[in-house]
Amino acid sequence: MTVQPAAPHELDGPPWTRVEATLMATARLVRDAYDHRFAELDLNLTQAIILVYVADFGPVTQTKIADHLGQGRAATGSTIDRLQARGLVDRHPDADDRRVWQIQVTRSGKDLVGRVTAIDETLRTELRTGISRAERQALTAVLQQLQSNLRRASGHEPAIV
Question: pTM for this one?
Answer without folding.
Answer: 0.80
